[in-house]
Design a protein that fits this description.
4% strand; two-stranded antiparallel ribbon; 166 residues; single chain
Length: 166
Amino acid sequence: MDAIYRLTRTLPLDFARADPAACLVVPPSTFVPFDAQATLFARPEMLWALYLPITVHGRVSDIWRSYFVQRLMRDQGAVVAFAGSWVDQIRNAHTILTDFDAEYDLCIKARALVDVLTAWTPTSTSLPDRIVELYREINERDFVQTDDVRNSERWVAELRAVGYEF
C-alpha cells in the first residue's frame, strides 16, 4: 500500500489469511510492483536480483528494483507470483504526506519506466552483462544515477568473485 492508498482509505487494514498454497502467477509481459518487505526470491539462482538502487529514495528503490528484475526475468523465462499475506506489519509512526513526497517519482515516472523496460532490447547475451547494460540504460533515461551503474558493475563482479553461477 502506497501513501496515496493510505491517504484515501480507512486504516488500519487487515488482509484475510489466504491458503498458503494458492498464488497468482503474473504473465511475463506484465509488470507489477513489489517491495522488499515480505518478498521471497525462492530460488538460489535469483540472488542476483537482490541489489537495490541507492540513488533514489528508499521508498522508490525497491519498487524500481521490482520492475528491473521483472524485465531481466523475462529473458530467463522466470515469472513473479504472489501468495497470500503471511506477515503482520506493525507500522512505526510517520507522516503519510512525507511518504507521498518520497514516493512522488513512483506516481509520475512509473509508466515511462515500464515503457522503457518494455521497449528495451539487450545486446548482451549473458545475464550478468544484461544487468549492467540495463542499469546503464535506465541511468541514461534518468531513473537512477551513475552510482547505481557503478554499483551494478561491482555487484556482478562480487557475485562472480564468490563463484556465484548466473
